[in-house]
Specification:
The complex is a heterodimer of chains A (269) and B (988). Chain A has 269 residues and is an alpha/beta fold. Chain A has helices at residues 16-26, 36-40, 68-76, 84-93, 103-111, 176-184, 256-268; strands spanning 4-9, 30-35, 51-54, 78-79, 82-83, 97-101, 127-129, 137-145, 159-166, 170-172, 190-192, 215-219, 225-228. In chain A, the strands form three sheets. Chain A has a nine-stranded mixed sheet with strand order 2-1-3-6-13-12-11-8-9, with helices on both faces. With 988 residues, chain B is α+β, with helices and mostly antiparallel strands. Classes of the chains: A alpha/beta (269), B alpha+beta (988).
Chain lengths: 269, 988
């Protein structure tokens, strides 16, 4: 089977090339970078792919809040009489995989595709807002992976060390119960962790943005839609690691495991 | 009627941006507030129904999880004072642009001409504040009156009145003619009043040209009178500006020193260009330069399939007036240079170097200037937004502090790009517009923003400095444009490309006209942000995010169709010709017809005189204490030395996934990197190293050695991380104070001599190091002059270096790696404390300026060091610069989380007998290295014959201990204390 992935581009997306590289290293054979407008116009159909990765960036400058304007674009783009967002929902129902990284994760949350706890992929239940410190930060973060999570992208991974690079990464719900239930349902697949204990933490800078329940990434109940603020594609080779000149590390970057899991899932499905 | 939608965080949701403003009110203004909350207000100047407004609010503007909204009724949060800040008419408002696009999409409506969206920020303040306090908060923190307006409200005051900041222009749109047949005084007055920055001689040259009967006949045939049109005069003023023509660098200079005189015909030609030519000849078949000095950026070969492009610009004058907009425009502006080089390159890194007055400056702030803290924060934020939103990693930079930068902050922005060596079987670094190619403008629309930017930056900052020169960049419009153009490039849809920067269309089309042999531009077709612009304004506007391309006629339809598909505006504005003229039409009527040879080569050469007398400073009598630990702690906490982590963290320095050596390094990701290394092509292990040198303090003694040190430091930076010293290129960016003697500048001859000496050093050092300059820029009027106050910056050069790292897996970082490793210092330490951080900490300048004493020897040493790195023999490498060995040793130690024991007696010393000099002298050409036990013999063999000294050992105990030349302990400090001192001033 030929592994085909779709990587949307345009309107401020800017991590498409390293995302393509990570997919390549993960085992995908055909990776198409497609401008969002070509998706909106129906010139490219998501149904032709098994996996869609929304890369990081600053969609529409994040001018109305992270990915907010682009979520609006996807909700209001029509391919003939069909909405683009419905096409994406069908893609999920048919078993496709969707990964959103950083701005791509923000987009999935703003669209309502995550956490989609009740199976409705079009209603926003939580949001991502300004970091506790009120500023953009680039720093590496330790992540604890929930071994019981249905997330197909994190299967078999115990811990991750990845860069975060965002100003609006704090997950917050309408009430504390909402975010707590995401942990209980194991949809909180990755959480910011203390490097010493490996446990989820609210302590800055290990939790770089003050995210509730230290949630760094979420999946839907099927585990096939996953989004996270940290950048697995930016740890594609050991020389990306901040300590690579100090430690012996495997040649392959740790982030590639996420993409390999996606490929493995598709092949076994 | 205009509608208003306000959006604010729900009261139970914390507001980090409000909290950040609260802490700045407290720290910067010394006022106490209890709480600050921020809301957004959208003014929609178009009629919409209540249903439409409600639908748009829910679908577009409000986040239902955390925000409340209020339609056509000002939102109410509890407050004691409310400050509303909006933009002045015509100022770029990116959020408004996104909102308008969203409204059109969501509601299926169009905004017609004159209809628009405007945004404002609402700041709700709680606390006991007087009206004066609130006015201060508004004026000195929240609002820049140049580009914004503000209103202050008390609770209960009527806030419903809506003022729409629409651009209204009642002036008749016309092409004016100017009579140049007037006396000298009147000529100068035309230049002054029109902000043309043309000298009397230049005005006379233009006047005389317009007396030539043959030329007048040609004009008559085109329907033009004998008088010059405003379009023509403005176009000439832009093209001939110091900013565009580098008149001082191209002047004939008589240089006087010690009673001897020497003539220099163009510093640019005889020093900068000549050096590069010599190096290229010396490199022979190993010459890696592809395009130098002729395009928007320099191009070198990266490998057989890829070329590397780089450019560094300054954006000082706009940043002085509006730090945020100036710096943002600086970064997105320099992005367009490598983007518009050859057939276009993809942008892979940014660099930024700032020069400010110290943040703790307590003196008076002269009129029109802003407090250095405000400049710092505004510039930082501008570069953050410019770089991060464009998806380009900011990988390297520096911040230099000196009180004289109060007069003009310096904002250097650099950008690198990468292009395939060949595109559609054409060498990608070349371009040529051909006759009959269409002139197509792509990207943003034209407004009154940035008019006279080129001439404005060719003058000192004065009372009449135009507000319109300030602009705000729009990274997303630019990103859409560059995404589109790279696609068009790969499909072969255009034959040439350049950016619209200084001088706008007059400069971009005027330049490209030289490639084809002429151009005919139809100005009325240009898309405008709002009506009412004069034709000359359209021609000159520096409105951002625009490129001009030459599209072959048979590719035009495909080009425009692709642009439409990707939501990018592209407009056919005319065609390139071969008639030797730059012709501008306004509704079929000639508005300008300028022969290209006059436009580009008609400028008379300046004749200048330079006179060098070496300054003599008081030689300080310093009695060093035996314990130098407090001295080291003081120097680590100096503005120029301290950690810049707080700023670096706010820049994305690893987007694009190829980061290898980051700006923050070491065991805790917080040590200082010497230079950046990145992999621009992700499936290859070949890397690019980027570093820089800047040393304005040495200019107070001798600019020759200032320049030499800059080049040497930039080179050592990149060699430290593993760049091949036989494969590196440089970029020279001069920022000077006015070096032309006049009433305003009585010491112009000395300042010009400083410039000559710096250029001499550039030739001398680059040719020996074989680092060709591939691009450069100069900014010559960095003075402030209002009333009796004159502030001139210290002559400042930023020398940027890019190098090739043959295999990034062999790159090296400065942090000590393990206890037991041997510590070496490579290079000779001399008594060179003049202009040092050490002397500055004692309030002295001194005279013994650091010298690159033997550059021939130095470069051979760098090659040997690189050979050792290729054999993976070096565990850590740090260059020695500000603060000398003491600072580098502390940095390598705390970055590695390890201690060190070092003896100064083991150093290679020349003429040094004092411990303070040995520790803090800033002699260039030196490195601090550590080497594993098992590699030491081989390492010493590879470096045999070079000035290598084993000075100590890395220790597990986290203390830095240094023994003096006589054996006494001179430094004994916990690395934690050293690091705290280093991190304290700017924080993390």
């Amino acid at each position: 089977m030929k592994l085909k992935a779709l990587v949307p581009t345009g309107h401020g997306i800017n991590c498409e090339l390293e995302t393509r590289r990570a997919l390549e290293l993960g085992g995908f054979r055909e990776i198409d970078l497609v401008h969002l407008n070509l998706l909106s116009r129906g010139e490219v159909d998501p149904a032709d792919y098994q996996c869609i990765v929304f890369p990081g960036g600053f969609l529409d400058g994040d001018d109305l809040g992270a990915a907010q304007a682009c979520a609006n674009r996807i909700r209001h783009s029509r391919v003939n009489s069909e909405r683009l967002i419905d096409r994406l929902a069908q893609f999920i129902h048919r078993g496709g995989l969707i990964l959103g990284i950083c701005n791509g994760f923000q987009l999935l949350v703003k669209l309502g595709m995550l956490p989609a706890s009740d199976g409705d992929y079009t209603a926003r239940r939580i949001t991502l807002t300004a970091n506790e410190r009120g500023r953009f930060e680039d720093r590496w973060a330790h992540l604890a992976v929930d071994p019981k999570s249905p997330c197909v992208f994190t299967k078999g991974i115990e811990r991750l060390y990845l860069p975060v690079r965002h100003g609006e990464g704090k997950i917050i719900g309408p009430d504390e119960e909402t975010t707590r239930s995401l942990v209980e349902s194991h949809q909180a697949a990755v959480r910011y962790a203390s490097p010493e204990t490996g446990e989820p933490t609210m302590e800055y800078p290990y939790n770089p943005n003050g995210s509730h329940e230290a949630i760094a990434g979420l999946c839907d109940p099927t585990g096939r839609v996953f989004g996270l603020m940290p950048h697995p594609e930016a740890f594609n080779h050991r020389t990306n690691h901040p300590h690579w000149t100090r430690e012996d590390l495997p040649e392959e970057g740790q982030g590639i495991a996420v993409f390999k899991n996606a490929a493995r899932h598709i092949l076994s499905a | 009627m205009a509608h208003r939608i306000d959006v604010a965080l729900k009261l139970n949701v914390p507001d980090p941006s409000g909290r950040r403003i609260k802490s700045r009110i407290e720290s910067d203004l010394g006022l106490q507030v209890n709480d600050v909350r921020v809301a957004d207000s959208f003014l929609i100047d178009r009629s919409l129904t209540r249903d439409q407004l409600e639908f748009a609010t829910e679908e577009l503007l409000r986040d239902p999880v955390i925000q409340d909204a209020s339609i056509d009724n000002p939102i109410s949060l509890p407050f004691d004072w409310l400050i509303e800040v909006g933009f002045r008419p015509g100022v770029t408002d990116n959020v408004a642009r996104t909102t308008r696009e969203g409204l059109e999409r969501t509601l299926g409506v169009r905004f017609d001409a004159g209809e628009a969206v405007y945004t404002r920020k609402l700041y709700f303040l709680r606390g006991k504040l007087s009206r004066d306090d609130v006015e201060r908060i508004a004026r000195d923190l929240l609002c820049n009156d140049l580009i914004q307006t503000r209103r202050v409200f008390l609770p209960g005051e009527d806030r419903t009145r809506i003022v729409v900041p629409k651009v209204v222009s009642s002036a008749e749109v016309t092409i004016a003619e100017i009579d140049l047949d007037v006396d000298d005084a009147a000529l100068l007055e035309i230049s002054r009043k029109g902000l043309l920055a043309l000298s009397l001689e230049e005005m006379k040259t233009i006047r005389d040209y317009y007396r030539d009967p043959a030329f007048l006949e040609q004009r008559a045939a085109a329907g033009l009178g004998r008088r010059i049109t405003d379009c023509e005069l403005e176009c000439l003023a832009q093209t001939w500006s110091e900013h565009c023509k580098h008149k001082i660098f191209n002047a004939s200079i008589t240089y006087l020193e010690d009673g001897k005189s020497r003539r220099i015909d163009s510093l640019f030609k005889t020093c900068v260009q000549a050096a590069t030519e010599k190096i290229r000849k010396d490199l022979g078949e190993n010459d890696f330069c592809l395009s130098v000095f002729k395009d928007n950026a320099g191009v070198i070969r990266f490998d057989d399939e890829w070329n590397l492009v780089m450019k560094v610009e300054t954006h000082n004058s706009p940043s002085a007036l509006d730090p945020y907009g100036g710096a943002l425009t600086g970064i997105v502006g320099v992005n367009r240079d490598p983007f518009g080089t050859g057939l276009g390159s993809r942008l892979i890194f940014n660099t930024d170097v700032f020069c400010f007055a110290p943040p703790d400056y307590e003196g008076d702030i002269p009129p029109r200037l802003l407090h250095p803290r405000r400049v710092f924060e505004g510039v930082r934020e501008g570069v953050e937004h410019g770089g991060n939103k464009s998806g380009i990693p900011t990988v390297n930079g520096a911040i230099v502090f000196d009180p004289r930068y109060l007069g003009k902050p310096l904002v250097y922005c650099g950008t690198g790009g990468i292009m395939p060596a060949r595109i559609n079987d054409r060498p990608a670094h070349q371009k040529k517009a051909r006759p009959r190619d269409r002139i197509v403008m792509v990207g943003g629309r034209i407004g009154k923003d940035g008019i006279h930017g080129a001439t404005f930056s060719s003058e000192e900052l004065h009372e009449g400095s135009p507000v319109s020169a300030v602009q705000i960049g729009d990274p997303i419009t630019q990103k859409r444009m560059t995404d589109f153009l790279l696609m068009a490039r790969d499909r072969g849809l255009y034959s040439s490309i350049t950016d619209n920067g200084a001088g706008g269309l007059s400069s971009s089309v005027g330049e490209m006209a030289r490639e084809a042999g002429g151009a005919r531009l139809c100005l009325e077709r240009a898309p405008l942000k709002y009506p009412g612009l004069q034709p000359w304004e359209i021609l000159l506007s520096e409105a951002q995010e625009r490129m001009t391309v030459a599209v072959p006629p048979d590719k035009l339809d495909e080009f425009l169709e692709l642009a439409r598909t990707l939501d990018v505006e592209a407009t056919d504005l005319g065609e390139y010709t071969e008639d030797g003229c730059f012709t501008v039409l306004w509704h079929d009527r000639a508005a300008a017809k300028l022969p290209l040879d006059f436009l580009h080569d008609g400028l008379p050469k300046m004749e200048l005189q330079a006179r060098w007398t070496a300054p003599v400073h008081r030689e300080p009598k310093v009695e060093p204490p035996q314990d130098l630990t407090p001295t080291l702690i003081t120097i680590l906490g100096r503005w120029n030395v301290c950690s810049k982590e707080r700023i670096i963290r706010q820049y994305d320095h690893e987007v694009q996934g190829g980061s290898v050596v980051k700006p923050l390094i070491g065991a805790f990701n917080d040590g200082p990197g010497d230079a950046a290394v990145l992999r621009p092509v992700l499936d290859r292990m070949r890397g690019v190293a980027v570093g820089c040198g800047i040393a304005p303090r040495y200019s107070d003694i001798d600019t020759y050695w200032m320049m030499a040190s800059c080049i040497d430091e930039a080179v050592r930076n990149i060699v430290s991380v593993g760049a091949d010293p036989d494969y590196m290129a440089g970029l020279d960016n001069f920022c000077w104070c006015d070096p032309v003697r006049s009433e305003k500048t009585p010491d112009g001859e000395y300042k010009l001599a400083q410039l000559v000496r710096a250029n001499q050093a550039l030739f001398d050092i680059t040719t020996v190091y074989r680092i060709p300059c591939i691009s450069g820029k100069d900014s010559m009027k960095n003075d402030y002059h209002i009333g009796d106050t004159k502030i001139s910056i210290p002559p400042t050069v930023l020398f940027s270096a890019v190098g090739i790292v043959p295999d990034v897996r062999l790159a090296v970082t400065p942090d000590f790696k393990r206890a037991g490793d041997a510590i070496y210092v490579l290079g000779v330490t001399r008594d060179e404390t003049g202009g040092s951080e050490y002397f500055a900490s004692l309030g002295n300048v001194g005279n013994k300026v650091p010298k690159v004493t033997d550059p021939h020897r130095a470069i051979v040493t760098y090659r040997a060091l690189h050979a050792a790195m290729r054999e993976a023999l070096v565990a850590s490498c740090h260059d020695l610069s500000d603060g000398g060995l003491g600072v580098s040793l502390a940095e390598s130690a705390f970055a590695g989380g390890l201690g060190a024991e070092v003896s100064l007696a083991e150093l290679m010393l020349e003429g040094v007998s004092r411990d303070d000099v040995a520790l803090f002298s800033e002699s260039p050409c030196r490195f601090l290295l550590s080497v594993r036990k098992e590699s030491q013999a081989r390492f010493e063999a590879v470096l045999a014959g070079h000035s290598l000294a084993k000075v100590g050992e890395v220790t597990a105990e986290p203390r830095v201990r240094v023994k003096g030349i006589q054996g006494a302990t001179v430094i004994d400090a916990q690395i934690g204390d050293l690091k705290r001192a280093w991190q304290a001033p700017l924080g993390t």
